[in-house]
Amino acid sequence: MSEPLKIPVLSLKGGTGKTTICLGLAEALRDTGNKVGLLDVDIHASSLPRALHLEKEPGYDPILGGKLRPVNFNGYQLFSIGLLFTEETPNLWDGETKASAVRQIATTSIAWDDDLQWVVVDTPPTSGDEVQSLLTHLQNIYGAVIICQPNDLSLLGIAKTLNMLRETETPIAGIVANMAGYKCPHCGQISNPFDRPPEDVRVLANNFG
């Protein structure tokens, strides 16, 4: 069994469309003939089960034989930390416990199929301990994808995230400036809802090499 390539998808804050882009990336890889896993370790607000209208089948046990058990869904394998808890369960873990849980789930304990080629990882929306620990221990990373919006706060977050990726020696696959414009349904004009043009994201990325 060869180690599948990992694509961690990062965002410094919630609400950027990170989970939606994870889904799109997993489906694009699947549609080009790859065996794909989708891993949700967003311990703060796991939203994949709700986004996919995914409900546990009767008798489903997320832990089997000492390993976490992914589900087969829509042509790919999926495991979400949301399958371990109910949406109403409060997360009272401290930072170190969260970091340890994310690291263990992502690196050692999932019973993926042997022929899996890619794993897209939906990470917590932070550059804190959970993500740093994950990136330090995750094996066979193809490249991280950073999700942002073209505004001042998000651009500051990109700089922090890029520096974190440098410190953890994580390769970078790209930056997505999401929600960069919307098209008027009446006149067809595209407007930018934020205070910076999308090109500023490209400039920042080029400055970091």
What report would you give on this structure?
The protein starts with a strand and ends with a helix. The protein is built from six helices and eleven strands. Helices cover 31% and strands 21% of the residues. The chain has 209 residues and is of the alpha/beta class. The chain has helices spanning 18-31, 48-51, 95-107, 129-137, 152-167, 199-207, and strands at residues 5-10, 36-40, 63-64, 67-68, 71-73, 76-80, 118-122, 144-148, 172-177, 182-183, 190-191. One of its GO terms (molecular function) is 4 iron, 4 sulfur cluster binding. One of its GO terms (biological process) is iron-sulfur cluster assembly.
Low-pLDDT ranges: none
Derived structural class? alpha/beta
CATH secondary-structure class: Alpha Beta
Reported by name, the CATH topology is Rossmann fold
Mean pLDDT: 82
Our measurement of the CA-to-CA distance between the termini, rounded to an integer number of angstroms, reads 34 Å
Assign an overall shape.
Answer: globular
Evaluate the radius of gyration. 18 Å
Strand content: 15-25%
What helical percentage do the residues reach? 25-40%
How many individual helices? Answer: 6
- Please state the second-level CATH architecture: 3-Layer(aba) Sandwich
What is the CATH superfamily? P-loop containing nucleotide triphosphate hydrolases
Strand and helix order: EHEHEEEEHEHEHEEEH
Strand arrangement, major sheet: 5-6-2-7-1-8-9
Count of domain modules: 1
